[in-house]
């Protein structure tokens, strides 16, 4: 029995994204051959172009997948916290810790920005800023942090985490850089707290 067209499309996309993720994560975007990538997925270049337009479109799809996985992971970290402030801080810290993962370093923090431009313009970042804005607005309303324009603070925090993650990913000693970045970042975040 023949599979429904929608299922065949989904399977082709899944195969291409998985093959691209493996290649981009190991040899990098620039060194990935589209012929080798499509052959490893058992598909043709035509399938890649049909579903993603080009190599850049495929990279965007891979980034979208990784970004979704990161969001689920980070929200789970926040949900384990004893209070909203700790959850917010822990989620930001966990994002910086993810910058130590080789796949995230290469795809999300080095190749992604080089090929797709400023990560703050990516669709996933808009969701991140919205979530941060809501979280900071709630923290301000409950008096946990000082009154602040929540969107402005969210954009500053998001920018700081993104820049710090890229710094970690490019550092000659990522672990040492991560420790320094997290310590400084958490000290910066504490500046938002209301002092009693």
TrEMBL record:
DNA-binding interval(s): 33-52
Keyword set includes Magnesium: no
Keywords: DNA-binding
Listed SUPFAM superfamilies: Homeodomain-like
Record flagged with keyword Oxidoreductase: no
Annotated ranges, domain HTH tetR-type: 10-70
Highest taxon in the source lineage: Bacteria
Xref: PANTHER family: HTH-TYPE TRANSCRIPTIONAL REGULATOR RUTR, HTH-TYPE TRANSCRIPTIONAL REGULATOR UIDR
Name of this chain's protein: TetR/AcrR family transcriptional regulator
Species annotation: Bosea vestrisii
